[in-house]
Amino acid sequence: MKLMMILAATVVLIASRAEADDGGVRRAGEWQVTTIGENGKANPPKTFCFPERSVADIFKTMDSCSKQDINRSGDTTIVDAICKKGAEQISLQMTIKSTSDTSYHAETHSTYSPPIGGTSQIHSVSDSKWLGPCPAGQPTQ
């Protein structure tokens, strides 16, 4: 489950508009993420409080990455990565379209090995928007 939280953090991070040479810096603050699962139904929105971080910082939370390709063209970013955290491996392919530095749309396909909670693959679509600064005392991800 920890790897799935890292995935969510990575999506928010990479989808934000580029402000650094390493592929982008996620705007600090509270983000609301609405995900549509493979069943086509929207899950209830979730909020996350994130510090400002670069793509390189997120990849540092993984034990190792054998692949981490990040390609940006205009407002679209394509991510293709294979990383490990402990005994878990995630293969991640994302297409992210930034609509501004406060919102984006992402399509993600991830494969987990070994499966997490019986799930080995997830395809999702998500829309995220920046809500503002983190509320006082709210821990960051």
Structural commentary:
There is one protein chain. This protein has 141 residues and is mainly beta. The chain has helices at residues 2-15, 55-60; strands at residues 25-26, 29-36, 46-50, 53-54, 64-73, 76-85, 88-100, 103-116, 119-132. The protein has one domain. The protein has two helices and nine strands. The model is unreliable at 15-23 (pLDDT under 50).
Report how far apart the termini are.
Answer: 14 Å
User: Which structural class do the helices and strands define?
Assistant: mainly beta
The side-by-side strand order for the widest beta sheet comes to 3-2-9-8-7-6-5
Low-confidence stretches: 15-23
Quick one: overall form?
globular
Overall pLDDT score:
77
Helix content: 10-25%
Number of distinct beta strands: 9
Separate helix tally: 2
Q: What's the SSE pattern?
A: HEEEEHEEEEE
Beta-strand percent range: over 45%
Number of self-contained structural domains:
1
The biggest beta sheet, please?
7 strands, antiparallel
Q: Over the alpha carbons, how many angstroms does the gyration radius reach?
A: 14 Å
Task: Give the topology, please.
Elements: H1 2-15, E1 25-26, E2 29-36, E3 46-50, E4 53-54, H2 55-60, E5 64-73, E6 76-85, E7 88-100, E8 103-116, E9 119-132
Antiparallel strand pairs: 1-4, 2-3, 2-9, 5-6, 6-7, 7-8, 8-9
